[in-house]
Amino acid sequence: MRTPRLLSWFAALIAGSVFAGAAGAQQYPTRPIRLIVPFPAGGPTDAIARILGQKLTETWGQQIVVDNRAGAGGNIGMGIAAQAAPDGHTIIFVSSSFVANPGLYKKIPYDPFKSFAPVTKVAAAPHAFFVHPSHPVQSITDLIDLVKKNPKKFSMATPGIGTTPDLSAHLLRLDTKIDIVPVPYAGGGPSLAAVLGNQVPFGCQAIPPVTAHFKAGRLRALALTSEKRIPALPDVPTMAEAGFKGHEADTMTGVLLPAGTPKAIVSKWHGETVRIMALPEMRNRIAEMGFNHRQLTAGVHGADQGGSRPVGQGRRSGRNPGELKFRSPVSVRSDGIALTVS
Questions:
Q1: Which residues contact 209 (CB under 8 A, 6 or more apart)?
Q2: Do 116 and 16 fall within a single domain?
Q3: Residue 310 maps to a domain
Q4: Mean pLDDT value of segment 11-36
Q5: ∠ CA(96), CA(159), CA(198), 5° rounding?
Q6: What CATH number is associated with residue 151?
Q7: What secondary structure letter does DSSP report for 16?
Q8: For the segment 212-247, what is each residue's pLDDT rounded down to a tens digit?
Q9: Distance in angstroms (rounded) separating the CA atoms of residues 277 and 67
Q10: Is there a domain that residue 238 lies in?
């Protein structure tokens, strides 16, 4: 099995157990740093990248320039980062699609084992099922009942094929046997805009970009995929509270550098990222958005791999690019997703 090995690699090595002499890192960075986000602006990965990038700009005195390179579920941006010069002046923030895409696409422009030097895991956020407020649906149960009475008439916007919210939407469809169509957009921003504009009635995505819209009444939250209610949205029930167990899932954000980057630079990125994310002001800021601080160390990464639920491996259908074919086991985990690929 290829992808369980990938998950072990990602979870263990991204903990940042990288130690080397600091001579090369003392003069780093020497010019602005390109921070690639493989999704459009407005999504959770983009949000956390910009927050951290701003703090690192202040710390290092060199501009961190966010470069959104969206497309193909993150593959375009990840391919660009994989080919970048390994001098520490190009870095990429990835989401759970980094481990999902090898099982969803026949060909990807990077080798998940060889193309990158892991830095650290940064944060994770649960998903929310939500609705445009013009619709009478008040709960996830209302949504399910409505769709069952009106099969094939409703769709649900997601941030893209293979993203963890997309898999959560498919899990809801399979688990409740409702005939609803998950519509994958090219990122969290476009999928959110589709529901805000009432072009699509329902949505599912990681909560940081939608939290403010819930509080302002522009969208109505129905349920969260977290294990328990979160401080940012204390009145929104979990899927388990609504009677649907086994839907716990979230979207992870991690930091990678191109393979071959000097270990001293990798270590510097790891140390500064961990330090900044541990600041009380940063913890409070990301908590208000719905993120959980999820930096891993060698002593705790193993615990994050437990608690999975089989869902089914997704592959793109040739007939419909938005359709997933579920065949082998896949798990939506607390730190992202695990795909079983034969």
A1: 42, 43, 44, 47, 188, 189, 192
A2: yes
A3: yes
A4: 67
A5: 155
A6: 3.40.190.10
A7: -
A8: 999 999 999 999 999 999 999 999 999 999 999 999
A9: 21
A10: no
